Amino acid sequence: MQTRRIRREAFGELVTMIDGEDGGPARVTARGELDIASSAAFGIELARLIGERGPDVVIDVSGLIFCDARGLAALVAADELARSQGGTVTLTGPRPQMAKILRLTGLDRRFAPARTPVR
Predict the structure, then answer these.
(1) How far apart are CA 19 and CA 101, in angstroms?
(2) Which of 15, 35, 82, 113 is the most buried (most CB within 10 A)?
(3) What is the SS3 assignment for 32?
(4) Does 86 reside within a domain?
(5) For residue 96, is it within any domain?
(6) What is the pLDDT of residue 113?
(7) For residues 62 and 99, what is the distance between their CA atoms, to the nearest angstrom?
(8) What is the pTM of this model?
(9) Is residue 76 part of a domain?
(10) What residues make up the domain containing 85?
(11) How many domains does the chain have?
């Protein structure tokens, strides 16, 4: 499992852990803040992962404490890339605030988040 710190500062960070070398979809665990300061690097990581391991990616978002519009845009861009290659991005474990944001934006239908993280 690879762990990468996308951003670290006094008020928060985004840490991703990448797993999935077992032949199944790549699994990403994101924790911290997915926002304007971290979304570009996160999107680059997801694009790299899709290019290297295939278009199916499962992202455990249960550890995200904050996600702004740029964070959502990074998730949508990754899903568009995955779909263009015949795959999908699946979100698991959204906290109530994240689930509400997905519902209000209509992205809950796109990502169909599960209630618990996929192991």
Answers:
(1) 26
(2) 82
(3) strand
(4) yes
(5) yes
(6) 55
(7) 10
(8) 0.82
(9) yes
(10) 6-17+26-111
(11) 1
What type of residue is 98? M
Q: Three-class SS of residue 62?
A: strand
**Contact assessment for residue 109 and residue 83, using Cβ atoms and an 8 Å cutoff:** no
Q: What six digits make up the tokens of 118?
A: 């996929």
Average model confidence (pLDDT) for the chain?
A: 83
Q: Is 116 a domain residue?
A: no
Tokens of 43: 């999107």
Cross-strand partners of 26: 57
Token code pair at residue 66:
């904050």
Q: Which residues of 75-87 are buried (b: 16+ CB within 10 A; e: fewer)?
A: bbbbbebbeeeeb
Q: What is the CATH number of the domain that holds 97?
A: 3.30.750.24
Q: How far apart are CA 107 and CA 119, in angstroms?
A: 23
Question: What is the rounded distance in angstroms from the CA atom of residue 82 to the CA atom of residue 88?
Answer: 5
